[in-house]
Amino acid sequence: QGQLMESGGGSVQDGGSLRLSCTISGYTHSRYTGGRNCMAWFRQAPGKEREGIATIDAEATTTYADSVKGRFTISQDNDKGTLDLQMNNLKAEDTAMYYCAADPCSMGWVPSPLDFKEYRYWGQGTQVTVSS
Prior knowledge:
132 residues, mainly beta, seven-stranded mixed sheet, globular
């Protein structure tokens, strides 16, 4: 059973930066990917659907939502078992609960990386608030 825990959320002013981290433990790694997994960051603002914003697959291929492209960077350290999200030039519309997600992805990738239904394991979330 996989366990994910996010950290690094907080409050920042418009234009500021934050770095989120997700610790991965007790994870069942896919034998097809040699222990690597498909990982992603999602966010959900009040009254809105959960939005996929950044993903990284077993080949380290990244995908970003248009809303964060050029401002956010996803990275993974398999040795440390962490997934990070560097967020720069934050805007008020980035305010949301941010979630780390993971899936064993036996093919090394998932068909729709920004779709929350592709991911089996989820963290509890960390709040990011950007004030203008």
